[in-house]
Amino acid sequence: MEHIAIWFASTLGQYISKEAVVFIISMIPILELRGGLVVSKLIGVPLLTAIPLCIVGNIIPIPFILLFIKQIFKWLKKIKFFEKFVVKLENRAMSKSDSIKRYEFWGLALFVGIPLPGTGAWTGSLIAALLNIDLKKAILAELVGIVMATVIMSVFSYGLLEILF
Description:
Elements: H1 2-12, H2 18-27, H3 32-42, H4 47-59, H5 61-77, H6 80-95, H7 98-103, H8 105-113, H9 121-130, H10 135-164
């Protein structure tokens, strides 16, 4: 993930501000807030500037995924070229959904908040949509998860990286 985030930072950084790079990285699936905070430290964006940029960037896709992903997937499945890809995405997301099914709100919050590969707001939103979790509950759980991820990644990015570099 870090290599991808650094590539985005170096590529985008030629054309836009450091803050805009952090914001955009925070909206990208897989990278999200975690990648945004790592990159912000590496390119010299102060923590108090990076946090709101990363949080807002990570929040923006959530309602769109929750509201529209099932319909988009349904439409894409009608196109032979995308059908296997969509089914693979659905199966992959649902394979990670056990704790969310069992604990719903807190399962989703922890899934989004604990920075492990394959977790985060994008995948959490997809799972919440596929499980038909109430929209308000899903958004609130994901916001709690994003706050958790922000704290964890801020300590890692600005604390541990400071020691290492």
